[in-house]
Amino acid sequence: MLLQNRNAVIYGAGGSLGGEIARSLAKEGATIFAAGNRLEPVEKIAEEIINAGGRAEAMKVDALNIKEVNNFVDFIIKKAGGIDISFNLISLKDLQGVPLVEMAPDDFTRPLQRAIESHFITGTSAGRVMIKQRSGVILSLTATPGGISYPNSGGFGPACKFIESFSAQLASELGPHGIRVVNIRSAGSPDSQVFKEAIDQGGAKVQEFIKKIEDDTMLKRMPLMKDIANTAVFLAGDGAAGITGVTVDVTCGTTSALNYKLTPIAFIRKPH
Asked: Which residues pair with 139 in a beta bridge?
């Protein structure tokens, strides 16, 4: 097992992607400390992991509340002795599909505020513990707008850019202590609850939008939740010991609409 005897903290573990990542880390031997704003979803994830033979605990924690986060971390230290992996996956509660000039200030700033406060609080709380250990991995997740500006993404795009920038800066400060900090950039997973709900509500229009996203990737598909989870497992393990201070792209090759009109046959040439 790649993560045997390691303790992993996951904020937002009750979401579909958070749960997928928690189960994947547990499958590789990590003990999961699942945290969420609501207790029931994270208890369900912990129960699934335990029933599958893994180790997990659940606790209601607001990642925007520094006291709750620090108390949670103190509990883990007393219970397990340390923290090896910390991953913040809380929802940013962003509003998309509305032009900036028509958006209310609160709708724009909300995802930024949630990203800035939660990643600073959870990242520095884990960092203080890991400095004493001289080891650890802090992970985060963004999406395509972190690298490519997309219209009508509201405050989500700037929030992604903040998370990626903060991850790199934290890596520069914690690196001398043997701590790695890495961000994962996704293109959104069509099998996640967010996309399933959007399809249920928007029907054909949402499916058409998803098809455009797929067409704008080199692989002509979007990354599934297991693709993100597999990347998280790799980055948390010793095989990624030389990776820090970067954003790892798992967007299936999103290009900002540069190549979706081309077909593979356009590149076939007969030898002279």
From this structure: 87, 182
User: Sheet of 247-250: strands edge to edge?
Assistant: 55-60, 31-36, 7-11, 85-88, 136-143, 179-186, 247-250
Q: What angle do CA 210, 211, 215 make, to 5 degrees?
A: 120
DSSP class of residue 57 equals E
Q: Is the pTM of this model over 0.90?
A: yes
Whether the CB-CB separation of 234 and 217 falls below 8 Å is answered with no
d(CA 42, CA 37): 9
d(CA 254, CA 247) in angstroms, rounded, equals 14
Residues across the chain: 272
Residues 6+ apart with CB under 8 A from 16: 191, 192, 193, 194, 225
**Where are the domains positioned within the chain?**
7-259
What pLDDT is stored for residue 202 in this prediction? 77
What tokens appear for 220 in the block? 């002509």
Amino acid at 251: T
Please give the pLDDT value at position 257: 52
Predicted confidence (pLDDT) at residue 260 exceeds the cutoff of 70: no
Scanning the structure block, which residue is given the tokens 């209310």? 104
Answer yes or no: are the C-beta atoms of 142 and 183 closer than 8 Å.
yes
CA 125 to chain centre: 18
CATH fourth-level superfamily of 7-259: NAD(P)-binding Rossmann-like Domain (3.40.50.720)
